[in-house]
Amino acid sequence: MAKIKVSYEFPMHCLSEILYEYMATAEGLAEWFADEVTEKGDDFYFRWGDGPQEKATLIRYKPESFVRFRWEEDEGTKNFFEMSIIIDEITEDLSLNITDFCDPGDEEENKLYWENLIENLRIKLGAA
Q1: Phi, psi dihedrals of residue 78, rounded to the nearest 5°
Q2: How many Å is the maximal CA-CA distance in the chain?
Q3: 126 vs 38, which has greater pLDDT?
Q4: Looking at residues 51-61, what average pLDDT do you find?
Q5: Most exposed of 14, 56, 66, 73 (fewest Cβ within 10 Å)?
C-alpha cells in the first residue's frame, strides 16, 4: 500500500544556524530525534532504546535550509522525510516545516509523533 505525504509547520524561537545543527548532524539529532545517532558519510544510523538500529540516507540538503533523508526500508520509493527551515520575509519568524510519509489512516499518529519530537527539540534549544 502506498504511503501518503503529510506536512507540518512548527513555529520555532531560535537562530536558523543553531536549528540546522540539530537537524543535520548526528550529535544534534541525538539530542532530540533518537536516543543514539551515528553518521558514516551520507548514512545515518538511529537507535531508540534497546531497539534495532535503523538506517536513513541523507539524499538532499542545503546548508542552513533543509535536510532530506530516506529510510532504508523506503529505498526504491519516492518516500522521504524532510526538515526545512522557513523564515517569513516580512516578520522574520522562523518555522520548522516537516514533510513525511505515513500509511493511510496513520496521519493523526504521525502528527502526534512529530509534535512530541518537536517539543523535545524546543526544550533542548531552550525555545519552549
Answers
A1: -95, 10
A2: 45
A3: 38
A4: 96
A5: 73
d(CA 119, CA 128): 7
Q: What is the count of structural domains for the chain?
A: 1
Q: Name the grid cell of 5.
A: 505525504
Q: Rounded to the nearest 10 degrees, how much is the dihedral formed by the CA atoms of 67, 46, 5, 90?
A: -40
H, E, C per residue of the chain: CCCEEEEEEEEECCCHHHHHHHHHCHHHHHHHCCCEEEEECCEEEEECCCCCCEEEEEEEEECCCEEEEEEHHHCCCCCCEEEEEEECCCCCCEEEEEEEEECCCCHHHHHHHHHHHHHHHHHHHCCC
- Return the closest-CA partner of residue 23 out of 49, 61, 51, 53: 61
The CATH number of residue 72's host domain is 3.30.530.20
Does the global pTM surpass 0.70?
yes
Range of the domain at 114: 4-125
